[in-house]
Amino acid sequence: MSSIRLVAGLGNPGREHSATRHNAGFWFADELVARLGGAFVTEGKFHGQLARVGADLRVLKPATYMNLSGRSVSALARFFAIAPSEVLVVHDELDLPAGEAKMKFGGGVAGHNGLRDIAAQLGTQDFWRLRIGIGHPRDSAIPQQDVADYVLSPPARAERDAILAAVVRALDVWPAIAGGDFERAMHVLHTKKEAT
To answer: Which of these is catalytic: 17, 22, 112, 136?
Structure first.
């Protein structure tokens, strides 16, 4: 199995979006780069902010807005000859409650426009995904809220804390992911901790 050479944290650029649920992928990317001692620089040819950490790992935050994330991811993957199986896309996930994180390889895009564009630009859905749960509006205090409005708004404090806890949990399995031990990473992420 290949190792991960590109981590693409998805979100929307700009201060007005920085605290929204849709930016959970950016939150992960920022924390990963901080933990690994790197720094982001703006890279026009890759349409985003890029950090190189270690010998062969690049962390990308596309500046194309969510729906065009594939433009950025595919440009970088092509330039550095990174196979889709060496890409980990980190994104917000409506179908997971806030506080959960799950990882998988391939599969559908579940209506996520960022994933849809990446799959289209890479020509395959066979890339890794780290799904950061943000919950669904139907389970929120305003169940009739439109999904787009929900993902583009900041979560309540308790929800944000839960989302950030999921980000930390995902960061804690990064050594397994970096080492290519995806089964171990998924086992840890997917195993619910018992209340003490």
So the answer is: 22
